[in-house]
Inverse folding.
């Protein structure tokens, strides 16, 4: 099992505090993502963003959440057999988990490189496959954590602090 | 104190039958039926005018300034917005419809289309110099501006922050004629003939690109009527002016996008408020970042679709396209004003958000409300029947959470509970 974790510099302290306190989420919402369902893909991210907007989260943070969760949701649609999104809302951050049903990432290190992609023709036809999704998630999420292995599910988690 | 908002909408209470047409149509869910009568939420309304168009009983009407407002001023300037040109049948020449306005007592008639050239130049320059805010959103439609303020405040920085052509024209001509006529600027009345109530509201309570420098907003249909009745009298009169059909593209959403766009500037033209909402959602989700400029108009086909017009928008559009095709380009005295733009004279203040999205200013409270909202939604029947006076169950749930309604307003639930009790 390969694991990758990135914590942005600004978020180090907040993240430490968060893992020490282990607060209960204020709210938790689940979404389903269908295999190659490009018609509906992106809706969960959009709803998450709308909900945070309604809670008064500021636009710059919303932008980060929107970009990171959209890329992650598309990846589940495009590269996996489908899966679930669990969005936990806390008073100072949002924690989103993308858990899919495999087939996993063969080479995680490579997958994280900008420009590396295994996107098939259909995915490319839909305008994806530049290999910039994971790097973009890394750039926008305060915390990014992936675990995956061949023929297993991929679990991607992101945290964005408000 | 809560800020009050001007709306160019009058509710005629005793004509309202509580039928829900308007409530269901309103794109910002600003209307409710309470005690059998329609109520408008000032903060949510963006003056798109859709409620006026659907009311079968004439209980919601547009308000605008009467033509007689010009009589209060010594020197009268009329600014004619572009859709005006599409209102008349083709046997009446465009120049005749302008001539008639002189005959009706205006001392100078300015076509908004005169500013199209310079506006296009400004937009291109602005887009090139604000790549970090891409896509830039057009600012000409006041209903769209208000929509962004209430529903998409995060996109306020993307708006083309330059004075509207009406404001530029009004500033320029007020100064010019007060000098020529030796009058105080306040003795010069500058009025604009507008196609929609959003523009009436913008003149009376300007936001950003509309400075308070217009003295009134007259409905195009009122001007049309006066001109139609005047036509026979003006055949042999002579006034000295040229017309600017070339810039009438402003009345049509697609045309503006075509004019501003080029190899470097990718554009989209969007019209109809539901389409505008959909596109703004996508801009907010950053899936339209590859575009440079988006033309957004609340009315179908653009300003020709405004409810203060007379003609069907598609017919008006065809007529305007014919006029544009036959037109010659004229250099205009405004063209040199590009340097004023570069000097920042047309800059406008950043627009203020007016968000209706936030459930509470305190996040803790907002979360509590959100949870309560979800619980209430579970209880409600989700059939969006509207019997409670709100457009759908979600809206009722929100009203309840915000203390504006109660759960007993749901007739279905009330009946269900009654049946349970009597069992
Ligand atoms: N959930 C997943 N399951 C399996 N493989 C994945 C998953 N997410 C990403 N990958 C693999 O990682 C690669 C890189 O992903 P990344 O999002 O960076 O680029 P992309 O999706 O190929 O293209 P883009 O995101 O630019 O449209 C993908 O091509 C795919 O091989
Ligand atoms: Mg991707």
């Amino acid at each position: 099992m390969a694991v990758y974790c990135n914590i942005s510099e600004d978020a180090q302290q907040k993240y430490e505090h968060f893992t020490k306190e282990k607060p209960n989420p204020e709210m938790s919402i689940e979404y389903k993502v269908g295999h190659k369902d490009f018609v509906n893909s992106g809706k969960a991210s959009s709803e998450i963003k709308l909900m945070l907007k309604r809670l008064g989260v500021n636009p710059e943070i919303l932008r980060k959440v929107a970009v990171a969760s959209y890329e992650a949701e598309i990846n589940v649609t495009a590269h996996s057999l489908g899966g679930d999104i669990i969005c936990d809302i806390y008073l100072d951050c949002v924690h989103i988990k993308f858990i899919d049903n495999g087939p996993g990432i063969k080479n995680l290190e490579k997958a994280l490189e900008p420009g590396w992609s295994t996107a098939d023709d259909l995915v490319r036809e839909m305008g994806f496959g530049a290999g910039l999704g994971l790097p973009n998630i890394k750039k926008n999420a305060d915390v990014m954590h992936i675990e995956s292995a061949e023929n297993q599910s991929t679990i991607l988690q992101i945290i964005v602090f408000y | 104190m809560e800020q009050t908002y001007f709306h160019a909408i009058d509710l005629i209470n005793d004509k309202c039958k509580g039928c829900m047409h308007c409530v269901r149509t309103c794109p910002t869910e600003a209307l409710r039926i309470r005690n059998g009568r329609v109520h408008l939420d000032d903060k949510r309304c963006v003056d798109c005018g859709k409620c006026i168009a659907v009311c079968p009983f004439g209980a919601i009407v547009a308000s605008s300034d009467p033509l007689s407002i010009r009589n209060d001023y010594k020197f009268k300037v009329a600014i004619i917005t572009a859709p005006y040109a599409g209102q008349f049948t083709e046997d009446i020449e465009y120049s005749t419809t302008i001539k008639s306005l002189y005959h009706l007592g205006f001392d100078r008639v300015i076509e908004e289309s005169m500013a199209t050239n310079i506006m296009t130049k400004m937009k291109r320059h602005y887009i090139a110099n604000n790549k970090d805010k891409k896509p830039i959103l057009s600012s000409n439609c006041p209903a769209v501006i208000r929509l962004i303020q209430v529903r998409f405040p995060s996109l306020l920085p993307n708006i083309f922050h330059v004075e509207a052509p009406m404001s530029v024209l009004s500033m320029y001509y007020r100064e010019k004629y007060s000098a020529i006529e030796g009058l105080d600027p306040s003795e010069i009345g500058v009025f604009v003939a507008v196609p929609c109530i959003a523009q009436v509201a913008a003149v009376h309570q300007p936001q950003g690109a509309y400075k308070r420098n217009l003295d009134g907003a007259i409905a195009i249909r009122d001007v049309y009527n006066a001109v139609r009745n005047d036509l026979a009298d003006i055949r042999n009169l002579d006034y000295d002016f040229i017309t600017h059909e070339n810039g009438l593209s402003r009345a049509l959403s697609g045309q503006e996008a075509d004019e501003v766009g080029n190899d470097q500037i990718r554009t989209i033209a969007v019209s109809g408020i539901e389409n505008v909402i959909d596109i703004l959602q996508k801009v907010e989700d950053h899936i339209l970042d590859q575009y440079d400029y988006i033309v957004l108009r609340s009315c179908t086909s653009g300003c020709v679709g405004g409810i203060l017009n007379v003609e069907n928008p598609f017919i008006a559009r065809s007529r305007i396209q014919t006029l544009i095709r036959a037109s010659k380009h004229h250099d205009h005295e405004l063209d040199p004003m590009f340097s004023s733009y570069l000097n920042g004279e047309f800059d406008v203040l950043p627009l203020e958000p007016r968000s209706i999205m936030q459930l509470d200013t305190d996040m803790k409270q907002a979360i509590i409300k959100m949870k309560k909202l979800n619980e209430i939604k579970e209880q409600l029947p989700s059939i969006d029947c509207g019997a409670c006076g709100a457009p759908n169950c979600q809206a009722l749930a929100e009203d309840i959470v915000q203390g504006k309604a109660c759960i007993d307003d749901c007739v279905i639930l009330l009946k269900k509970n009654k049946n349970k009790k009597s069992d």
